[in-house]
Amino acid sequence: MAGMTSVTHEVEAEPAAHHALMNPVARTDPAAPSTPVERAVDSAGLGGLVLDWFAGAARDLPWRHPGTTPWAVLVSEVMLQQTPVSRVLPVWGTWLARWPTPAALAAEASGEAVRAWGRLGYPRRALRLHQAASAVVERHAGEIPADVDALLALPGIGTYTARAVAAFAFRQRHPVVDVNVRRLYARAVEGRADPPTTVSRADLAGVAKLLPADPESAARTSAALMELGALVCVARAPRCPACPLQEQCAWLRAGSPAGTGPARRPQGYAGTDRQVRGRLLAVLRDADHPVDRHLLDQVWEEPIQRDRALAGLLDDGLVVRIAPGVYALPS
Length: 331
Fold this sequence. Notes:
Blueprint: E1 3-4, E2 8-9, H1 24-28, H2 43-57, H3 70-79, H4 85-98, H5 102-106, H6 110-117, H7 124-140, H8 148-152, H9 159-168, H10 179-188, H11 201-208, H12 215-231, H13 250-253, H14 273-286, E3 291-292, H15 293-297, H16 303-315, E4 320-323, E5 326-328
Antiparallel strand pairs: 1-2, 3-5, 4-5
Helix pairs in contact: 2-12, 3-9, 6-7, 10-12, 14-16
C-alpha cells in the first residue's frame, strides 16, 4: 500500500505544471479566502467518496491480491518506504519466492537478506526485516501477529508499518498515515498546503474519523486514502480536476493558499556518502567470498569519504570485518 515511511512511503514522480492551471476553484471563485480556514468536514462523506474513487482507480498491485499472507504484506510495506512501486515489484516477488515465511528468512544469514535487497536503497531495511523475521519465529511461532502492539514490539517496525500490516493484512480498522495521507488530510480537511513533517496522535485521530466503522471497509478506505495521495493529491502539482474531493476540499475552497514552510529540496545522491556506501555494498553483494580491502578501494577515489562510508557500513552491521583488510556481508 503505497506510500513514504518511515517518513516517506512511496516516492512520487509528478509532471511539472503550473498549480493555477490544475486548480479551477482558485481561478474561478473570487470569494474564496486567501488564507486557510477552519471548516466543518463531513468525515464519513469524504471517506466514502475516496472509497468510491478507489473502486475504479486502484492499481493492481500483487500485495493487494486476496490470499496475500501477512508476511508478504509486511515485506511490501518495508520495501515501499522511500522507494517507488516500479522498483519494488520485481524484488518483492523474488524475495517471497525465496523466503515465503518469516522462518525461511530467519534460517539464513542476515547477509543474504542484504544481498537479495539489491539496489532498492536504504539497505538497513533488509537487516530490520531479518531481525523482525527472527523475532516472529522466537515470539510468535513464525506467524506475524495481528495485534498492533505486538507488531510494534518487533525490531524495526514503527507506527506506520504496524498499523499498515494490521489494516491491510488483517483487515482491521486503524488509521494508516504515511506522507501521502498526511498531505491529503492537510489539504482536504485542514485547508493548508504544508503538512507536518511528523505524524502526531491528533493526525491519527483525525484520519480515523474518515474511516467507516466496518473493519473491512475501513481497511479499504485506508488503502484508498494512500492511493489518492500518491496518484492525485501529489506534492508539487496536485491533479485537482481528477480528485473526487474537489467539491469538499477545504484547501481548494480556501483558494489553494501557498505553503508557508521552507521549500523542501530533493536530496541529492551523486557524490554523497550514500553513493559511496552503495558502491561498496555492490562489490560485497556480487562476491561469493570475502573481499580484500584493495578491491573496495577501487570503487571511490577520495580516501577520507571512502573510509567514512565503510566505517558507517560496519557500524550499521551491513558489513563485517572478518580479518585485517578483509570484509564480507554479515553471517
